[in-house]
Amino acid sequence: MKSNSFHTSFQINGKTFSNSEELIKYSQSISKEINQFLREWFSLAHYVLVNTSGSTGIPKTIQLRKDFMINSALATGRYFQLGENTKALCCLPIKFIAGKMMLVRALTLGWHIDVIESTSNPLQEIIKEYDFSAMVPLQLRNSISKIGQIKTLIVGGGVVSKDLEKSIQFVDTSCYATYGMTETITHVAIKKLNKFTQLEQESASVYKTLSDVTISKDTRNCLVIHAPKISDGTIITNDVVELISKTEFKWKGRLDHVINSGGVKLHPEEIEQKLSHTIHSRFFVAGIPDEILGEKCILIIEGEKYQITTKYFSKLSKFEIPKATFFIPKFLETGSGKINRLKTLDLLR
Predict the structure, then answer these.
(1) Domain limits at 280?
(2) Helix (H) or strand (E) holding 336
(3) What tens digit of pLDDT does each residue of 159-172 get?
(4) One domain for residues 209 and 237
């Protein structure tokens, strides 16, 4: 399928269209962002401009080839067996790649997609049932009581805490964590979060790549992605991984978040996973300069101050225990709703 056409079964908000001009005109009634994206999608250009989220650095605008975006949509459809007439809910902002790709999947695969405003509790007013949707962890957390209205859910844009993972073990929805970024046109690897068989339980922390995606790691132990159908070249990441095979890996954390504390390398994301059993508000772990250690590990919690006792750190090794804890009433966020760690840390200075 070419980007200047769309699947004959495609519907958006219950409406069908005979051509792209009709669709573009109707999209004006949904939102300015959707209208703008569809104009770009159906233009003669071979690429679209997409904003990165800025969660790990300064946000930037990059070009993504439309044929690569279509290939990504087809790969998702194959992986989850989501063909034409799939009922999908888009509750992510169209400004970023995750929202854009929900539309591209629908256009390419012939889905019936409903687009709603991106909020922290997207299912609050929803009574319909859907085959597929995508959320960030905060949206899933706020939707637990109604998540059964969605058969298959992918969760991206942040780490799914152990606490949140525990809360979805007995829901009817099949939930998956995704690994990806704007440059990989959303996810290139998937990890099951619930509904494990006994065999799958043993490899619950392992991400498995989609079709036509292979992986390796560089001298920094960072993930290298080989995906010729969605990228012109090899994608070198700053994600530290344990490589299981050419298609499987365990994610350990971001290299650019690593804390070098007295020569001991600490991965904040690993520490955060252990702390998520006992801390239920938003938090993160970071390193700040220290005269003796070079860097020291600290804990930053969102909300009103309360007493942190040693029981909170029972799962941590002695090197992982934060040297100080700080409380900030409200974290600063990126445009896509992720915690902006760098700017939030600046509030402590």
Answers:
(1) 258-346
(2) none
(3) 788 888 989 999 99
(4) yes
